[in-house]
Design a protein that fits this description.
10 strands, homodimer, five-stranded parallel sheet, alpha/beta, Rossmann fold, 20 helices
């Protein structure tokens, strides 16, 4: 991959000076068109070898364009808030919203490559990282992001010359550190590992552009023109495209009408006295677990889905009843805010991920996309179909960063829902809990049940299984939920 | 203040059990009314002596109400991201949005009281902290927040008894630490310092409610009922109130029409050659300053205001031209997002405050409130009038946390604006820079000038002076801005 970037590309000064004024005007033009259009973000990754002019290029892009609509992020060591979340959290934080250009200096490639060069990970780890990156970038592209990945390359000889030149000039000496020379010592290994990584991650949706870093004028023009052409092409395509008509996708039910939900035994119940003693037992156990000496190494995420009036809220109160309010947070998931709408779908769940030692309870979740959004046609069929694998990736990352994830589908019968709706209408402080929308959703009961069964089939994985909760009897449901959470935390503590 | 909380308040179990069901239903009711209303946040502060049942009370409030619409924050040691900003940043981060209840466990009172008890600060520091807190809470109240501050008190004897009881029960032993006993040793001093603080911060807008912590039933009912009554009263008042009609406030110009702006000599200019050499000099100087060994101890915030087409954008590009893109951030201030609208006015500027070693450039600023919002009637007269002192408080906090703040008013003449508007309409890549709104604003030229003069008069303070920039000649303006920034950073570095 890198041979083409060692041929000694060069641009004459006169050619450069003639080209720049037009390029700048054109870049400003597409930048403002992007802002007006507001429908997608541009994500520019700047990576490559040291001394190949990455910093200068980023500075120049900011100079050529309007820096007010560019967000430049340089990733240094993670902060403590970042270290307590899955590694990708800091990149989710830095994603530019639609209509903006985000320049990421250092990226999700840095750690996998460096770790492998210095052999702190195995080649298997690198393969896994590459696969994760491909999934992540595919998701970004599917969400509409324009992704440009620049790799700045220098031959061994050119890098040595460049570092020496920088080190001998008093003005730039500070820029060459011992770390740079340590990197230079492993040039060949770095070459091989990055080539493998680039080869495996150069996809149609997010291709690598390798730039020879030796001649400043060549690299500036290459990056500037590539960025210009890619943005122009996308903007033109957008202008000619009509928004896809969103429509409710047909849902196909199994021919014999049997699914995981309608096979549940909803008559399961507990007596009042049994419930009371079990509640004490399991809330006490949960409380003790949350005070375990090793608990601060874990995060806990509890996710609830289920039909309206299934008892999600009251079950959540039985969980929080066993916890100290200082260490949990309940996130009721409603419509996204406008800042959330300007980001990929999962962004609004990433932003609330708990720090270590904390419990976050989601009342409705990232599964909204394959339930309400699918059924009401709020997103296209492609969007919700790809959600299954995006969600699996997300949950895998949670699991791997020591997050105990418990997912509950709380199931009631259609008759039981009717009974509860009527009760809510009668009771004073429950009247806020029943709206016109609830009655409208009820009419689509069968569709929701089918979508839920479909969802469970696709996303009940080994590492993040769904727990189906028989909830016609609230007492039975609450104990089952509490017990499941306790057992999952216990297992995670044992495995630490 | 505390005597009334040492009388041995007690509630019988039977009384308590009778009261609770109604109280819970009522609390849920006001909580949902708050959510529906969505016009103000409720901020509940939980403070006081150790062992007085603060934690249990917070847990109970979460149990009695719907935890999905309560946000509980416990402030432990600040994270590194928090330590690199002014001390109040972490509290701004934790403010509940309109329609929600935020329970803050530990608060802006903790550090001032503890520091004074253990004598790490002087009594003068405490007085200053108290004044700052009063300003902050007044701002919150003016922004509509309902603030309830609970102080949990125990007599010396009661605290000793309570700590001993906790320490002797194996179930609760872990809750009593050496730190608790160290605090107990300075009980009398803690008593005096907190009494002084409470006395001086118990205002009409944010009163303290001292709660005797000895009897659990008494403290639960007291907190629950106080919260209920305060919320109910506010909701009822809101329901009866019509929104104030926002209107443009009259602006009174000095009788002789002289002000700081129209006295500027706009003919100041630089020749092209002088400009080029000065630009090199000052950009180079800025660059070297940003690489100073002590620079990572500073933050820099640069604020731009001025009429449309005054040259803010192009001046910003001359600043960023001297900096490394990794370390600056340009914030173009446009209309607030919906998340920002659910918070106090200054929230959206606090959230972007730079970490140490970074430069943030605001293209338009927190002064929008006393310029565009005042003139267009987007806020009430009381709102923009109180903005002056709120802004001064904000800037004082920046200054004290080693943030170099440079505020520029970029001034052009009305004729020069017209010339630039016409030029923008002609030039291809500038066409995005001129809108109908710009022409509309131009019609209000005199009003904007008068509001700006008024603003400068009220907010050009010793620690955060305005620099007025004569900008009919862009070259002159850019050099003046660059020079000012360099000098301010130099002074700050010298003073470190």
């Amino acid at each position: 991959m890198f041979e083409a970037a060692e041929v000694g590309h060069k641009i004459e000064k006169s050619v450069f000076n003639r080209a720049v004024p037009k390029l700048r005007a054109d870049l400003l033009d597409v930048q403002y068109r992007l802002k007006e259009n507001g429908k997608f973000p541009v994500i520019v990754l700047i990576s490559g070898v040291r001394g190949a002019g990455k910093g200068e290029t980023v500075n120049l892009l900011n100079e050529w364009m309007d820096p007010r609509h560019i967000v430049t992020y340089a990733f240094d060591n993670p902060s403590d808030e970042e270290r307590e979340r899955p590694p990708m959290w800091r990149y989710w934080r830095a994603l530019p919203p639609k209509g903006k250009i985000g320049i990421l200096f250092g990226s999700w490639y840095t750690a996998p490559i460096i770790d492998r060069v210095f052999k702190t990970t195995t080649s298997g780890n690198l393969v896994r990282s590459i696969e994760e990156i491909n999934h992540f970038e595919k998701m970004l592209a599917d969400e509409g992001a324009l992704i440009l990945k620049f790799w700045f390359h220098l031959s061994r000889q050119a890098q040595k010359k460049r570092l020496k030149a920088l080190a001998s000039d008093p003005e730039t000496r500070w820029r060459v550190t011992e770390r740079d020379w340590n990197f230079f010592k492993v040039y060949d290994r770095f070459y091989r590992v990055s080539e493998e990584t680039l080869r495996e991650t150069s996809t149609a949706a997010a291709p690598w552009i390798v730039v020879e870093g030796q001649d400043p004028r060549y690299r500036y023009l290459t990056v500037g023109k590539t960025l210009l052409e890619a943005m122009r092409k996308r903007l033109d395509a957008q202008a000619n495209r009509r928004d896809p008509v969103s429509q409710a996708a047909p849902i196909i039910r199994p021919i014999d009408k049997r699914d995981v939900l309608n096979q549940l035994d909803l008559s399961k119940s507990l007596t009042e006295s049994k419930y009371k003693s079990e509640l004490l037992t399991w809330q006490g156990r949960l409380n003790r677990l949350s005070r375990d000496a090793k608990f601060p190494q874990l995060s806990v995420a509890v996710a609830f889905e289920g039909m309206d009036a299934a008892g999600k809220g009251s079950t959540i109160r039985r969980i929080t009843g066993g916890l100290d309010a200082r260490y949990y947070n309940v996130i009721p998931v409603a419509s996204p805010t406008d800042e959330e709408r300007a980001q990929p779908y999962l962004w609004r769940f990433w932003r609330h991920l708990p720090r270590k030692g904390r419990v976050t309870i989601y009342d409705r979740t990232w599964y909204g996309r394959v339930l309400v959004e699918r059924i009401e046609g709020f997103c296209s069929e492609t969007d919700w179909m790809r959600a299954y694998s995006e969600i699996n990736d997300f949950e895998e990352q949670l699991e791997r960063s020591n997050t105990v994830l418990c997912k509950f589908w709380v199931q009631i019968s259609k008759d039981e829902q009717l009974r509860r709706f009527k009760e809510r209408e009668r009771m004073r402080f429950k009247r806020f809990k029943i709206t016109e929308e609830d009655w409208r959703n009820r009419k689509k009961w069968d569709l929701y049940q089918a979508a839920a069964a479909d969802m469970i089939e696709h996303t009940s994985t080994d590492i993040a299984p769904w727990t189906l909760v028989e909830a016609n009897d609230k007492k039975y449901a609450r104990i089952k939920v509490l017990k499941t959470i306790c057992k999952r935390i216990e297992r995670a503590l044992d495995e630490l």
